[in-house]
Automatic annotation (TrEMBL):
Domain HhH-GPD: 54-206
Catalysis performed (reactions): Hydrolysis of alkylated DNA, releasing 3-methyladenine, 3-methylguanine, 7-methylguanine and 7-methyladenine
Domain of life: Bacteria
UniProt-listed InterPro entries: Alkylbase_DNA_Glycosylase/TA, DNA_glycosylase, HhH-GPD_domain
EC number: 3.2.2.21
Gene3D superfamilies assigned: 1.10.1670.40, Hypothetical protein, domain 2
Similarity field: Belongs to the alkylbase DNA glycosidase AlkA family.
Organism field: Ramlibacter lithotrophicus
Keywords for the protein's UniProt record, in alphabetical order: DNA damage, DNA repair
SUPFAM superfamilies to which the protein is assigned, alphabetical: DNA-glycosylase
GO molecular function: alkylated DNA binding; DNA-3-methyladenine glycosylase activity; DNA-7-methylguanine glycosylase activity
Annotated protein name in UniProt: DNA-3-methyladenine glycosylase II
Gene Ontology annotations for the cellular component aspect, listed alphabetically: cytoplasm; protein-DNA complex
Amino acid sequence: MPEQIVVPPPEYWGEACRHLTRKDRVMKRLIPQFGDACLRSRGDAFTTLARSIVGQQISVKAAQTVWDRFATLPRRMSPGNVLKLKVDDMQAAGLSARKIEYLVDLALHFDCGAIRPEAWEAMSDDEIIAELVGIRGIGRWTAEMFLIFHLMRPNVLPLDDVGLINGISRNYFSGDPVSRSDAREVAAAWAPYCSVATWYIWRSLDPLPVEY
């Protein structure tokens, strides 16, 4: 199976880091700690969403194991090939009946043209989220991760993300509980680069960069 292409970092990254360093005392401290590391995407929309479904509600390690088994089933990971797979083989790879339903629904949406990756460039973040949450098994959080990691949109603030809320609590509120409105207030200084600030908040909790 060919290795996925990792696309280059976003063009806005340097400007975003300068903006955040000027506007936010925590970012001024965090950003230099991670050198040249930055957000990276693997560049395939269907595979990115399929991986997010496989990884739901299980550990990162377990998700990787199941994904590795599942990814060997089709000759190439594509909507059409996934639709040809046998349910028994997918279950043997470690997928639950519900995740199999979600993966088939995802493949159907791509295969029949209900999902239009070529139109995303002209669409707003909210329009893309609305399109993606129409697929079974994809909620707002998954759609926001997709905006950040696949489309590399610069100003996504995933308020449903536990890591972001925990990181804001630790870095800005000495570990005290944080509400969504507290998080929004902190993030007001991050705009229009909330995705970049979120990435650095995640790094403050786990130095290994996340990739989807």
